[in-house]
Specification:
Elements: H1 6-34, H2 37-43, H3 50-57, H4 61-73, E1 78-79, E2 94-95, H5 98-105, H6 115-118, H7 120-125, H8 130-136, H9 146-169, H10 176-182, E3 185-189, H11 195-203, E4 208-212, H12 216-229, E5 234-237, E6 250-256, H13 265-275, E7 276-287, H14 293-299, H15 303-318, H16 334-343, E8 348-351, E9 359-365
Helix pairs in contact: 3-4, 9-11
Bound molecules: S-adenosylmethionine.
Residues 142, 153, 157, 189-192, 195, 212-215, 218, 239, 256-258, 261-262, 268, 317 line the site of S-adenosylmethionine.
Domain Methyltransferase: 181-300
Domain S-adenosylmethionine-dependent methyltransferase Rv2258c-like winged HTH: 25-79
Length: 366
Amino acid sequence: MQKIDPDKLKLFSFLLFTKLEGAVTSAMVHLGDHLGIYRAMATATTPLTTAQLAHATQLNERWIREWAYNQAAAKIISTINSPSESPAIDDDTFFLSPEQTAVLALDNHPAFGMGMFHGLPQTMDSLNRLPESFRTGIGHNYDSKGEQGAVSIERNFEPWSNANLISAVLPKLDGITEALSAGAKVADVGCGAGGAVLLMGTEFPNSEFIGYDISKYALARAAEKLKASKLTNATFADPSDQPMATNNSVNFITTFDCIHDMTHPQQMMQSIRQAITDDGTWLLVDIKAHDSFTMNATKNPMAALLYGVSVMSCMSSSMSQPGGAGLGTLGLSANTAEQMAKSAGFSRFRKLDVEHAVNAFYEIRP
Ligand SMILES: C[S@@+](CC[C@H](N)C(=O)[O-])C[C@H]1O[C@@H](n2cnc3c(N)ncnc32)[C@H](O)[C@@H]1O
């Protein structure tokens, strides 16, 4: 073994343990959301002591206090007195800045960030199954994360979509808002809990919407929400029972963050081509990815996060059947998507000018 440089050793150990700090703090964020602590802080009009926070949440003060110390030390929540300056527990008060409130406590804010943290126990539980996946090559689909996995996806994607899909994304597509207003057939493939279908179904009552997903938990959530919405122009289906049309009859097809999760994405693109009308439009939304690992690692500050999510969720889903493509979270770059779409029989491919931290948006046409 080469000689160890003590300074580099310290620096590397520091780097490694910052990752563990992130994991442990993420677990505390999950609890803050799950137990309603952030929501209680968001509704308070003044900073709260831990005793007041315990009262507001009906939780135990000692546990709240230790949690709050983690959160304030990690700068996830704000504090008036730093713990080192004030050892007396009642001197410490905690509050959320407006930005912390938006990300931690406002379910409908486009920057709301609790979705991924919601599903953290299920995501981490996959560690029990993954060693076997590394040996056999076979991963696990979204339903391996149970009902809460589906809720996590829903909470992750819907806030941004609710705020932007109708007003900022659809107008970027040639003629789609007009076609939907007049009346069109629409399919959302990999629809999850159906948020986009219900949103568009409400906005465009003359159009007919169908959402497809293979997750029974996501479809159950979608069915519940459909019932509550009382919409009559939307339905949901599992494509294994009710396959997509093959007669070029669907005017508009959407796929939000799901093609890279699919075991057979090329086949899915072919099915989309068979379903869509010859003058139809496919809106492909997928992760903003570069063409190589090096490009992703140097240009995307979230690369490590996304490659990890890939092993635990996206690539795992895409490898959940023998022969799965295994594209992975960062596996569908614009070039790859264009090449695959062209092989599936599409000829026009246009990147849309939509600002999003993680996703890229494409208009694809026959
Ligand atoms: C990351 S989630 C995105 C869900 C939804 N589009 C959204 O934005 O909330 C990916 C979804 O793709 C679904 N999926 C994976 N393979 C599929 C397939 N072959 N057909 C339909 N849905 C599929 C999964 O079950 C999961 O619900």
